[in-house]
Design a protein that fits this description.
By secondary structure, this protein is mainly α. It has one domain: Alpha-lytic protease prodomain-like. The protein has six helices and two strands. Helix 1 (26-61) packs antiparallel against helix 4, helix 2 (64-86) runs antiparallel to helix 3 (95-126) and helix 2 packs antiparallel against helix 5. The protein starts with 6 loop residues before the first strand and ends in an 8-residue tail after the last helix.
């Protein structure tokens, strides 16, 4: 839900219209931007660690899902870097920089959708059966529990700043949580029941969601009143 407080006005016989909260005062905006940068740095740091663990565990188990999850972590780090770029120097408050950042976020969504989709299809076609990876299962469980909290914090700040790029980057963090749930289900099903196909099928759904988010971000949709 949006964070903006909503008031309602009656215009004759017209339907009630929402009145969005005004832009924050300069001092408040500076404080919100500092918090946004801190969250972005924290997210980048975690995603680098996540990438290293997922890649090592994926190579050890022969798991395309884990390797793909590691690649997603790098894209998440890229998205966090875009937000840092947006709120640095003369770009702060620039509508041109905001639009450019929104398009860069969209490109990272497209990259994520393409990679996950191709790897999922290849796994299904090749009938790959990765070994059980309890390290990967623990990583996926931790990420599934923590990423929604980080996404909520980023989305709230993005709405307060009226920053579509920040809101979309929060959506990508939420997508990481969905992907970690898919990974958890896939690795768990493979380890406990031998259902190797569960992970690539769920990954295809995640790829479709990423494609949708990327298309909306590229078009400039979803600014501060969605996600």
């Amino acid at each position: 839900m949006p964070e903006e407080s909503t008031q309602w006005m009656e215009l004759g016989e017209a339907r009630p219209l929402p009145v969005l909260a005004p832009d924050p005062a300069p001092d408040e905006r500076a404080r919100l931007e500092r918090r946004t940068r801190l969250l972005a740095w924290g997210g980048i740091g975690w995603h680098v660690v996540e990438f290293a663990i997922a890649l090592a565990a994926g190579l050890a188990a022969g798991s395309i899902a884990l390797i793909g999850f590691g690649a997603d972590s790098l894209i998440e780090a890229l998205a966090g870097g875009v937000v840092l770029w947006l709120f640095t120097g003369r770009r702060r408050g620039s509508r041109t920089a905001e639009r450019r950042a929104q398009q860069l976020i969209a490109l990272s969504f497209f990259l994520l959708a393409g990679y996950v989709g191709v790897e999922a299809l290849r796994t299904l076609v090749n009938v790959d059966h990765p070994a059980a990876s309890w390290v990967g299962i623990c990583l996926a469980a931790f990420t599934a529990a923590t990423m929604p909290l980080l996404a909520y914090a980023k989305r709230r700040l993005g709405n307060q700043l009226h920053s579509a790029a920040t809101v979309k980057e929060a959506a990508q963090t939420q997508l990481c949580a969905y992907l970690s749930i898919a990974l958890l289900l896939g690795l768990g099903a493979n380890a406990l029941a031998g259902w190797w196909w569960a992970d690539p099928l769920t990954a295809l759904f995640i790829a479709a969601v990423a494609l949708k988010e990327g298309r909306e971000s590229w078009r400039g949709e979803g600014c501060c009143d969605s996600c």
